[in-house]
## 1
Amino acid sequence: MSDSTDQPDADGQRGDLPAESALPEPFPTDWTRCLVLVAHPDDPEYGMSAAVARWTAEGRSVVYVLASSGEAGIEGMAPSIAGPIREEEQRRSAAHVGVDTVEFLGFPDSRIVNNSALRDAVADSIRRHRPDIVVSLFSGPEFGPGMPNQSDHMEFGDAVGAAYDDLVAAVGVDSREGRPQMWFESDPQPSHYVDVRGFVEPAIDALAEHKEYLSVLDPRTPVREQAKAQVERMVEPVDGLADGNPVVGFTRMRP
Ligand SMILES: [Zn+2]
């Protein structure tokens, strides 16, 4: 998120840094229950889980609901074998950041579409868990120039937005009734940030639990090293924020 913020322009200002008033704000703290909705195992592990570790350490409750079991994600492994392995890796991973409840909705990995079945399943999970806030994965078309997002992430994010809007449309927000106050996405150009100083290690531990997945993805680099490099890249400090501590960014999508 800080790729272009350290280039001074002619008058010594950082050219691409937003005006001070446009800097991300601290993430809200007036909530206790969060539902994290993502498409695949390991989706929470690229930065978001550092924020989750902080939230659960503060006594908040966080639940993970995943659209798929990631069964198509391990090259050379049959989906019927990969699915259960990835579910187990996700459960162990979640435990590192204080998340005890991990659910899988059973939608097909790499073929996720924003259809009524998916929207209904998302809405049902929101109603059951009654979160104050919903957090999902970035659903924009690209993370940065030349870094396109995956179709599954975009379709799923759209389904989360539609489900949220349907729940809230008729009668407004009331988390006791399963209509959360806020919906955030993780975002490389965020509106809000969480200071994750002290919570980077558990996030690395969480990503490193995706052992089978990471060791097939990059057989030459030890899994723990891969996890450390990935997480540290995602929680880089941003000039002007959080006293230079590592941060995780989110954008407030609703209301
Ligand atoms: Zn994913």
## 2
Amino acid sequence: MRAAVITKFNEPWTLKELPDPRPQPGQVLVRVRASGMCGTDLHVHHGFLPVQPPIVAGHEPTGDIVEVGAGVTDLRVGDRVGAFWNQKGCGRCDACQKGEPGACPNAQTWMHVGGGNSELMIAWASGCALLPDGLSYEAAAPIFCAGYTVMSGLRNADPKPGERVAVLGLGGLGHLALQLAKAVGLETFAITGQAGKKAELEGFGADEVLVSGDDPGAALQRAGGADVIASPERRPRSSRTDDDQLRQHDRSEPRPGNDGAEAECQLPPSQDANNGRQALHLVATTQLFNDQ
Ligand SMILES: [Zn+2]
Ligand SMILES: [Zn+2]
């Protein structure tokens, strides 16, 4: 199989021919059809993650299952799937014993089984989800990291019908947060510093676009505040987005003023282990940044 291999940090990736992998018990072999590029891939490229070259990155993969390992009963050859960052807990630690493999410190990820920038990849069956019919591989791929991250936060914030979500920071995560919040029927405010983005953000589902200048908090306050603030920016432009802009009993996701990823992890763990998985991925990255 061909794969884009990181042979050395901070150097161009190299297309190489590698042996076709075979699935071990509990694993599946996926013919990759799309592999999203995430900001975290830059951190892999720069050597900020605990993995050493040669490595194949790619943690937003989708594709078709072409082989299943022994013991896999819930996935079949031909299934269209995507694979998560955190694919399997160790089954033995406190977190796994509590049924929260997403918090497992020894979880299996793409760093253990290989990433998706490759014609074929291995994934743990427990770390795959079926793609809905009609959803393209390309559209689904970024949902396995970026979409997953913001949807986890949104679910943790537990918005009620009719509530308003303000999305601060309309980059890779924010534009998905906006679309997801709109798709589940919430009122959506997009807060941006760039007036030129207004039409684009309305296209993504913003009921109102607040062009904020340097003070998104003040802009939101003037507009009446929100029930949930989704702030996926790693470093929000202003720490003034705080409780002043939240309506009563409301919550911010992640808590603004902090590193967004770190803040997300302070939210209570969800019933769904997948939420914890994503949070774990993000906190790990955050800690690495802090160590740089
Ligand atoms: Zn990612
Ligand atoms: Zn464990």
